[in-house]
Amino acid sequence: MRKFRISAVSLLAAFLLLADNRVTAAGMNLYSLSAVLMDAGTGRVLFEKEGEVPRPNASTTKVMTCILALENAPGDDYVQVSANAASQPDVQLGICEGEQYYLEDLLYSLMLKSHNDTAVAIAEHIGGSVEEFAKMMNQKAEEIGCTDTYFITPNGLDAEDENGIHHTTARDLACIMNYAIQNETFLKITQTRDYQFSDILGKRQFQIHNSNALLDMMDGVLSGKTGFTGNAGYCYVCACDVGGKRLIVSLLGCGWPNHKAYKWSDTRKLLEYGEKNFANHLIWKEPEIGPVLVKNGVETGSGICEKEYLEPFVEVSAEEKEFRILISSMDNLQYELQVPEQVQAPVKKGQKIGQQVILLNGEVLKTYPVVADRSLQRKSYHWMVQKIFQEYFYG
Q: pTM value?
């Protein structure tokens, strides 16, 4: 089998221009116990500090609560407040047992001001109980690709049961946010600065302001959720468009009182690191594929005109050819064209006979099939008789 390997030693000349301005990972000195910077386009982790260590994650849990509600009920659903929901500790909206609210209004309360009573009311409405909703949360986390996340409460308050403590990892939390920002309603809610609503009967009025201060600190903020408990410390997760790059930042254990601002410092450092050290790179390269011999093969059809070579090509969509990833000057893209020198007949048009593999730092990033450009049948006794007859009488 022919195997061509091309190493992209210098990916982007632009990195040479950025060299003097590059922010090094070692120089960030993050406050957070765990931190992740993720490329939202691919889910690739660009930087992590104890990114896979499980830790309590406080109200960043509400990102999962919100997305489950959006996916499982319409916004104009009536949500009735239970005694359990109304009795939740601070931070509270102050809803009372028996009151009814539109689900969409409660989602603004959930994400803008992180109200714990709202979270339980939503969970009970969607799942029937907090326990059943927690099962939905954990199932969704597994579907998204989380590997070490266990939710017990919909609001992120510190909790423990026979299976362990309420927790996630910085990597998993980034995955959850990356999933959530695919939902336009989620983005609309979390980008809202101020919101007003009332209970369904219009007896009580509420006005809330978004606690995600990053919205007013910088441009390009798509979404964000803060959190704090005694066990978790200050936590934060956000999605931002920075310099043409969509980045996710997740922080766990980012200080305790009186260090509420540490999370903003760490977030800025990580976003700056992503902006300075990575650039969008178009990964597709058209490979040069030579002809492939087909042993005992002849052109499908009359069986008289013999063609024993294929001219295979890579089967790839126009969209895939435009696929881009964030790459630094330290990354290494490699291209492997794996095509045999010959194949056995019969071969069908479109049949896979090899593959084009793109690797990033030695790990497979993309694989595309190399397929036959036409069909070739196997030389048979009948074909040979026809061939001899033609050459004898008409040759």
A: 0.86
